[in-house]
Amino acid sequence: AQRVTQPEKLLSVFKGAPVELKCNYSYSGSPELFWYVQYSRQRLQLLLRHISRESIKGFTADLNKGETSFHLKKPFAQEEDSAMYYCALTCRTGAGKSTFGDGTTLTVKP
Amino acid sequence: DAGVIQSPRHEVTEMGQEVTLRCKPISGHDYLFWYRQTMMRGLELLIYFNNNVPIDDSGMPEDRFSAKMPNASFSTLKIQPSEPRDSAVYFCASSPMDTQYFGPGTRLTVL
């Protein structure tokens, strides 16, 4: 069975500080990992996916298969980054279903 | 494309009433998902469809909840009878394969 763990429910940093949102997963096959973001009272939207290796809004995430982690990082947090962040896993063999973590609420203080 | 469309955006009803939430997925997406989001339990997958067929409804909390997808462009989630503990934001999402595209959600309040 697949599982996604986000150990921090709440994370608070000051503007300009580095931020790292942790995500660990368990899955026996080859996973596809995603980060979704939900700004206040808005819909969830895709932030980035590991397969594209992009940097979106200054965020990056590297898949570490050895540690089964997909932590989200940004070197200099901005106030507009305050949101709920969800890590999600989809198995490449299909089925389309994603397993989501419980989410981390990030607050960036001025 | 307007994205995933959900209606109504807000629903306030009284305990015992029937509630129907509606979703129009993005055209061409084969998968449709219904989620419930609460402060206490986070994001929960209720049910999902592939090509209009329900694949996994193990997340549906109880028999009061039912979902249908009569065609590729429409799905409903029904709660009958509704209870105060059903109060939550209900999201619909569609997917071509792996990335999910979420609707704006329906904020349901059951008094």
Summarize the structure.
The complex is a heterodimer of chains A (110) and B (111). With 110 residues, chain A is mainly beta.
Describe this structure in words.
The complex is a heterodimer of chains A (110) and B (111). By secondary structure, chain A is an all-beta fold. Chain A is built from no helices and 11 strands. In chain A, the strands form 3 sheets. In chain A, strands 2, 5, 6, 9, 10 and 11 form a 6-stranded mixed sheet that branches. Chain A has a 3-stranded antiparallel sheet with strand order 3-8-7, with no helix packed on it. In chain A, strand 9 and strand 10 form a beta hairpin. Chain B is mostly beta strands. Helix content of chain B is 0%, strand content 56%. Chain B has no helices and 11 strands. In chain B, strands 2, 4, 5, 6, 9, 10 and 11 form a 7-stranded mixed sheet that branches. A 4-stranded antiparallel sheet of chain B has the order 1-3-8-7, with no helix packed on it. In chain B, a hairpin with a 5-residue loop joins strand 9 (88-95) and strand 10 (101-102). The relative contact order of chain B is 0.34. Chains A and B meet through strand 5, strand 6 and strand 9 of A and strand 5, strand 9 and strand 10 of B.
- Number of DSSP-assigned strands of chain A: 11
Task: Count helical runs of chain B.
Answer: 0
Structural class of chain B: mainly beta
**Which structural class matches the secondary elements of chain A?**
mainly beta
Give the strand tally of chain B.
11
Features of this protein?
heterodimer, A: 110 residues, mainly beta, six-stranded mixed beta sheet, three-stranded antiparallel beta sheet, 11 strands, 0% helix, globular, B: 111 residues, seven-stranded mixed beta sheet, four-stranded antiparallel beta sheet
Task: Compile the SSE list and pairings.
The complex is a heterodimer of chains A (110) and B (111).
Chain A: E1 3-5, E2 10-14, E3 19-21, E4 24-26, E5 31-38, E6 45-49, E7 60-61, E8 72-74, E9 83-91, E10 98-100, E11 104-109
Parallel strand pairs in A: 2-11
Antiparallel strand pairs in A: 1-4, 3-8, 5-6, 5-9, 7-8, 9-10, 9-11
Chain B: E1 5-7, E2 10-13, E3 19-24, E4 31-38, E5 42-50, E6 53-56, E7 65-71, E8 74-79, E9 88-95, E10 101-102, E11 106-110
Parallel strand pairs in B: 2-11
Antiparallel strand pairs in B: 1-3, 3-8, 4-5, 4-9, 5-6, 7-8, 9-10, 9-11
